């Protein structure tokens, strides 16, 4: 039996697909192991449903986690529902505190209109707008 080039190419593609399948599987297992090792009491976590909280205790036998969402509110969830550990985000300084809120001088999102800087229109602005509307 002779192997034609088409068969060789198909076998090579199949081998590459199998290689990537095993590689991705190992990556996922390593990520899951890293997540499970970082799930410890005191860690701030997020569940699959988007609930944020702090782990109070972990029951290894029952695979349950006591999660405090707000002070005094404790939820019991399955350990596998913890989808990620939330790392604190470093906030950089307010370098743009003196910068105008927008290029046009309008209010920034959430800023009251009374607090926004007032931009005066000039006669040149009115002339430019009239020219643009005529075009």
TrEMBL record:
The keyword Membrane appears for this protein: yes
Protein name: Preprotein translocase subunit YajC
Region (Disordered): 89-135
Species annotation: Agromyces terreus
Family: Belongs to the YajC family.
GO annotation (BP), single: protein transport
Gene Ontology cellular component terms for the protein in this record: plasma membrane
Keyword line: Cell membrane, Membrane, Protein transport, Translocation, Transmembrane, Transmembrane helix, Transport
């Amino acid at each position: 039996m002779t192997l034609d080039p088409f068969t060789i190419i198909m076998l090579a593609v199949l081998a590459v697909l199998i290689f990537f399948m095993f590689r991705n599987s190992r990556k996922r297992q390593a990520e899951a192991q890293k997540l499970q090792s970082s799930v410890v009491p005191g860690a701030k976590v997020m569940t699959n449903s988007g609930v944020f909280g702090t782990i109070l205790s972990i029951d290894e036998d029952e695979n349950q986690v006591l999660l405090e969402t707000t002070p005094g509110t404790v939820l019991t969830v399955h350990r596998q529902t913890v989808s990620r550990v939330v790392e604190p985000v470093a906030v950089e300084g307010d370098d743009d505190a003196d910068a105008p809120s927008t290029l046009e001088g309008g209010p920034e999102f959430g800023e009251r209109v009374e607090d926004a800087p007032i931009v005066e229109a000039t006669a040149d602005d009115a002339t430019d707008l009239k020219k643009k509307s005529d075009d």
